[in-house]
Amino acid sequence: MKKRPFLLSLLLILACLPTACGHTAPNETTIKMEAMRFQQDEIAVTAGQPVTLRLVNRDDYAHAFDLDDFDIHLQLAAKETAEVSFIPTQSGTFTFYCGSPGHEAAGMVGSITVLP
Ligand SMILES: [Cu+2]
User: Fold this and answer.
1) CA 74, CA 97: separation in Å to the nearest integer?
2) Ligand 1 midpoint to CA 48 (Å)
3) pTM (predicted TM-score)
4) Amino acid 109: pLDDT
């Protein structure tokens, strides 16, 4: 009996973790660009739900974020942050990359999976 309040609060904390607490909007994902890499290179979102991608360029040179399948093309100057919002309608796995010359070949690629 004594353990119940503890368990209950633990459950509440766990239930709170994913999105419910409102610190971060659902489906908002931050992708940091650093040292010629996307630090988050595997992203999963849900079809039909609005998604906001927040791109943070931490390098001292420009990067780009290109997601051809959704016609998203962002240019980020050194140390710049940009956001893009869209609603993915088709499920599948799509590739994003940095369109700056040579960056994709150097490893600036990732994938976004849209779950049905
Ligand atoms: Cu780049």
Assistant:
1) 11
2) 29
3) 0.77
4) 98
